[in-house]
Amino acid sequence: MDHTPIACSHHDHDHCIHDALEAARNLCVSRGVRLTDLRLQVLELIWQNHKPLGAYTLMEMLAKANTRRVAPPTVYRALDFLLEQGLIHRINVLNAFIGCPSPGTKHQSHFLICRTCGVAIELDEPTLNQQILQVAKESGFTVETQALEVSGLCANCAGANT
Amino acid sequence: MDHTPIACSHHDHDHCIHDALEAARNLCVSRGVRLTDLRLQVLELIWQNHKPLGAYTLMEMLAKANTRRVAPPTVYRALDFLLEQGLIHRINVLNAFIGCPSPGTKHQSHFLICRTCGVAIELDEPTLNQQILQVAKESGFTVETQALEVSGLCANCAGANT
DNA sequence: GCCAATAGGTTATAGAGTAACATATCTGCC
DNA sequence: GGCAGATATGTTACTCTATAACCTATTGGC
After folding, report:
1. Count of beta carbons in the 10 Å neighbourhood of residue A29
2. Which one, A50, A71, A125, B87, has least CB within 10 Å?
3. Could you say which of A92, A125, A154 has the minimum Cβ distance to residue B92?
4. List of domains in chain B
5. What whole-number distance in Å separates Cα of residue B98 and Cα of residue B43?
6. Smallest CA–CA distance from B114 into chain A, residue
7. Which residues of chain B are within 8 Å of residue A128 when distances are taken between CB atoms?
8. How many CB atoms lie within 10 A of CB A123?
9. At what angle do helices B13-31 and B37-46 cross, to 10 degrees?
10. pLDDT at residue B52 above 60?
11. Which of B112, B142, B150 has the CB atom closest to A153's CB atom?
12. pLDDT tens string A61-72
């Protein structure tokens, strides 16, 4: 059984971007929070592809897109907002950020990360989530957040090496 | 079912330290690599408790223990060695390092991390590991390393709040 | 239109990690 | 023992990541 993830396959990525921004707008309206120009722009840049982007990379991209140059706190505040709203995830192992394809629902932040092409594939496996919660429970541990970061080679990159 | 992890219970921690250092010495001898004074000292400091320590914290501890002041590359090289030998793990979400209680065997780096007391509990759940590998396989992904970092409250800290 | 709250701008600095090169120490070999 | 090559550590400087503190601008409700 081999289900190639969207992130790894040829696809209409404009569609991904459009959907993500649309979902973000709706979510922010329904929650009564403000998706400002800056926040939207940062989210759009993050969605440029399925690869996590660092804060400083985003700063450079902002500087090119706009005339204005943005200082670190500005971009970090936008990132903090997007994280709080569950619109993006932080990939700890890369110090980088990636868009969440299903904001508004539960986020366990489970990723497969390719060390060659840099793509990060978000998993949605309730069973895995349940098992982690179960294991934690057995240790008397109260789970607040989870971060599973599996590093290796995606199907494309592993295939190219053989 | 509730198995309080060692890290969270009262225990003879000198025993933990002793065992860890003994295991490290044996492992290094059997592999023909050099567990130098510095590396041993760093490992010992990391094992002071069951809480991850940052590289700069370790530097300060080294400076206090010895007269000599150690520069970042020195401590990072020791940490790199210990990581390579599987004697410690890196906790990405904390930018910190913690001793591995079972070096020499497979390391999946699965942790429960308490945000209050800072303790990090290493899990040893082959079933969980298998499931992660299975999920990755279904996406055609070749796993090289895993990092599961579950944050929340340990049994002690959760109990103290109720 | 005013006020309080929220968002963004600015400067400076803290924290984490590494590159590049110099020196020391440890082997194995003669 | 002494030498050579490999391994380990010291040193300086720097890059990358993130935040503190303070100020200004914008927004939305009254």
Report:
1. 11
2. A71
3. A92
4. 11-161 (1.10.10.10)
5. 9
6. A141
7. 131-132, 135
8. 20
9. 150
10. yes
11. B142
12. 999 988 778 999
